[in-house]
Amino acid sequence: MRGGGSALELRRASSTEIAGTPLHGGTELVPLLRSGIVQADTLVDVRGVVPCEIDAGRIGAGATLAQLECDPQVPDVLREACRLAASPQLRNASSLGGNLLQSTRCWYWRLKWPCRLHGGDECFALEGEHREHAIFANGFCASAHPSDIAAALVALGATLRTNRRELPVSELYRLPTADDRGTTTLEPGELILEVDVPAPERSVYLKAMERKRWAFPLVGVAAARFDGETRIVLAGVAPVPWLLEGSVDDATPLPRNAYKVEIARALVARARAAIA
Ligand SMILES: Cc1cc2nc3c(=O)[nH]c(=O)nc-3n(C[C@H](O)[C@H](O)[C@H](O)COP(=O)(O)OP(=O)(O)OC[C@H]3O[C@@H](n4cnc5c(N)ncnc54)[C@H](O)[C@@H]3O)c2cc1C
Ligand code: SF4
Asked: Whose CB has fewer CB within 10 Å in the chain, the N or C terminal residue?
C-alpha cells in the first residue's frame, strides 16, 4: 500500500506512545489513504494497546460497534446508535475510537475539491449541492457530522481518556475557522484509550436515513435523562455533534436542506416523549 506516492510502513504498537498514524479497523483510514486525502509514512496498528473491554461504565476505545450494540451494560442510546450505524460487516471491524475520529462525508471534500476544510477559500457546498449538509453552524463549512456514536456519547456526558489527558467527548470536537481548519482537538500522537459513560435514568437514539439500513444520519437524535433533565444531541446537522441548547427552530438551513429542520423537530419531539 502507498500513502501520498511513497512506500508506506506498517508497524504494530508496543505501547500507547506511538510515532505514526494510528490504524484500528481501517474502515475509514484505508479509503482516505487510497484516495490520497490522508498521507502517511508510517501506520501504527494500535489494536494490541487500545483496550477493547466493556466493564460497566468504562468502554475500551477498541471495542467494536458490534460489541457495543449487543452488550446490556451499554446505555440504550449508545447501543441503538451503534445498531443503526453502517452494516453488520462494518460494525464488526469498526472501533469506537475510529468512529469518533471519522472525517466528513461531504462529497466535495471526499472528491478533494480545494474547499475550506482542505485549506482553500471556498465552501462549494454552500452554493452547490448541499441536500445532506448542515442546518446549524454552517456559515464557514456546512459539513454534517456523520457519527451517530459521537452524538450518543455527548448526550450521555461521557468522558474520554487518552494517553495524555481526560476530556469530555464534547470537547473532542471544534467548529473549523479561517485560522484553524481542524474539526477535532486531538493532538498528534494522542491515542484515545477509553470512554467513561455515566448511566442515565433513560435514553434513546432515533435516526432518519435515506434508506432503512446502512446509511449515515440525515438527522440523528440522541436523548439522555439525568436527574430529570434531558440532554439532546443531534448528528448530521452541524460540522460537530450538535448539543441542542435552544430549539430546532434556531436552525439556519440552506436553500435545499430545510427538510432536515422538519425531520429534526419531529425526532426531537419523539425522543422527548420516549424518555419522559
Ligand atoms: C460505508 C460506511 C458506512 C458507515 N455508516 C456509518 C453510520 O451510519 N454511522 C456512523 O456513526 N458511522 C458510520 N460509518 C463509520 C464507521 O463506523 C467508521 O469508519 C469506523 O467506526 C472507524 O473505525 P475504525 O476502527 O475502522 O477506524 P480506522 O479507519 O482504523 O481509523 C479512523 C481514524 O481514527 C484514527 N484512530 C483510530 N483509532 C484511534 C485511537 N484509538 N486513538 C486515536 N486515533 C485513532 C485513525 O488514525 C483514523 O484517523 C460508516 C463507514 C462506512 C465505510
Ligand atoms: S461543507 Fe465543508 S467540507 Fe464540504 S465543501 Fe464546504 S468547506 Fe468543504
From this structure: C
Would the pTM count as exceeding 0.85?
Answer: yes
Residue 69 in grid coordinates: 450494540
Please indicate whether residue 97, judged by its CB atom, sits closer than 6 Å to ligand 1: yes
Ligand 2 atom index nearest CA of 143: 1
Residue 269 phi/psi, 5-degree rounding, is -60, -40
Dihedral angle sign, alpha carbons of residues 13, 5, 28, 137: positive
Q: For residue 121, what are the CA distances in angstroms to 112, 184, 230?
A: 14, 20, 39
List, run by run, the mean pLDDT of 10-residue segments along the chain (276 residues). Answer: 66 96 98 96 97 97 98 98 97 98 98 98 97 98 98 98 98 98 96 98 97 92 97 98 97 98 98 96
